[in-house]
Amino acid sequence: METLSFRFPAGQAPRLRAQVGCVGSGDLEVLAEPGESGILNIQVVTSVNGSGERWKALFERMFAGANPPALNVDIHDFGATPGVVRLRLEQALEEVADV
């Protein structure tokens, strides 16, 4: 098990929280709650040791030039593929969006 932490610039904190996915074979869980304005904090607990660069690259692609909401995001990973990771993150971001 490995714990990774990432921090990105963000906009304002949303009012809502989200929980998407589940920890299980090939999947992951994303928990998102309002964070400090201007900061997106992501913590990943993964069963795949040595995958920090893959996570970093995925987050940088997702948030480059974007203005994500200020969140504290906890990700519990059980070997999910990058496509599943992106899907779950997008689902969480959609759920916390003020519509």
3D structure, described in words:
With about 100 residues, this protein is α+β, with helices and mostly antiparallel strands. It has one domain (about 1-95). The protein is about 25% helix and about 35% strand. It has 2 helices and 5 strands; from the N terminus they run ββββαβα. The protein has a 5-stranded mixed β-sheet with strand order 1-4-5-3-2, with helices on one face. The longest helix has 15 residues, at about 80-95. The protein is globular. The protein starts with a strand and ends with a helix. The model has no long low-confidence stretch (mean pLDDT about 90).
Identify the notable features of this structure and list them briefly.
single chain; 99 residues; alpha+beta; five-stranded mixed beta sheet; 34% strand; globular; Malonate_deCO2ase_dsu; cytoplasm; phosphoprotein
Q: What layout of secondary structure does this protein have?
A:
Layout lengths: L1 E8 L8 E4 L6 E7 L4 E8 L5 H12 L7 E7 L4 H15 L3
Parallel strand pairs: 4-5
Antiparallel strand pairs: 1-4, 2-3, 3-5
Subcellular location: Cytoplasm
Main location: cytoplasm
Family: Belongs to the MdcC family.
